[in-house]
Amino acid sequence: MQLLVIQRILGLLLMVFSSTLLPPVFIELYYDDGSITPFIEAFALILTFGILLYLPVAKQKKELRLRDGFLIVVLAWSVLGTVGGLPLYLSGIYDMSVTDAVFESMSGLTTTGATVITNIDAMPHSLLFYRQELQWLGGMGIIVLAVAILPMLGIGGMQLFRAETPGPVKDNKLTPRITETAKALWYIYLGLTIACGLAYWVAGMSFFDAVAHAFSTVAIGGFSTHDASIGYFDSTAIELIAVVFMLLSGANFALHFAAIRRRSLQPYRHDAEFRTYFLVLLVVSIITIGYLQLTKTFSSTAESVVEGLFQVVSIGTTTGFTTAEYYSWPGFLPVLLLYVSFIGGCSGSTGGGIKVIRILLLVKQGVRELKRLVHPNAQIVIKIGKKPMPENVIEAVWGFFAAYFAISALMFLMLMASGLDQDTAFSAVAACLNNLGPGLGDVGQNFASINDFAKWVLVFAMLLGRLEIFTLLVLFTPAFWRK
Known about the structure:
This protein is mainly alpha-helical. Helices cover 64% and strands 1% of the residues. The chain has one domain. The protein has a two-stranded antiparallel ribbon with strand order 1-2. Helix 6 packs across helix 7 (125-140). The relative contact order is 0.10.
């Protein structure tokens, strides 16, 4: 393990991250809300910490090994998620504790969208913008950004890219050079953000709200500048714009790259994961809209269609925006939507959850086992599209699935032991492990009322979900630290 090289990179990342505290300073200068000091203090502290880590090891420039990449990724998300809470804590807003500040920051950076803040509408614009900015930076990933714009790191970018990017198949590069791949992803991400912001602005949002919500929409984050989330605007046009960009952001960004390069929609049509992703959301939308209409939850069919579609896409992609109190909808709908969040977005997207490709592989493996009962000696190959899947990928997916639900069960029991009821505990774990945000029960609106122990458990759940379980768990194995 090259600890000095790791220290150097972490110091660089902290120095870069400190610059993200400057845009809120300019926002504050414009709106004059009286909250500039916390950002200046936090900027100075984080920058100083980064410099102190970097200077003693500034000349340590060696090629990273894969294990080094895993450790850097985990340290980066853990440390940046923690120090990211400094402006919130130093602001003294709502007497926020260290636990709440770290929870809010980690929720933003991991694009979970769970909040402990009430009365969001009364917050200073600088803090509102900072929360949204955290989600936008976390959406595509701090590490991918570093690989894209910091070639001066002098490191093997592929190790970081493989350790950070989601999905069971991580070796596919869009371009021959990994730096160019990371840049391509960020250009697409930036383009979607600008398009989304302009669409929101044209539909009636203020420029500030349009930018803020574009950040969290494309990042599949779910933070809003209002307590009522997207429902604050009471606009069908805004809700439909959100649906479009949530769908696009929940798809594999490699598909967007291929579609742009070929100037064709064929990559979407031919991709088995995208077809499954779209089909799942379509079927659940039909069920939800039909049940809302049957129970007369809304006064008109049009309202049932818009609200049902919006909430299914928002929860299904793990964005977490709300336009209505979906957790109080009739019958099985709240639990259905929560279960859909376990599927989440596509591999290589900004979405959370298990990922559609893994669910697809699990279903195909189940079908194969049924066929083997009838034909025990048959050699049956699992294919995605026309491509055969290696057996080690199938085994990895089963391992991920088992670990995912074993960890969720353990955290569920821990939260119940801390005093939370079943509905609250189960949905809180699901919402944070899936990087979703809103849950059921006491965490339907926010997470302010739960105890500090539960919040720290959920902070760990957010990290596990964002880093796709194994990236973090591998650090707890003796083999990882063995020379």
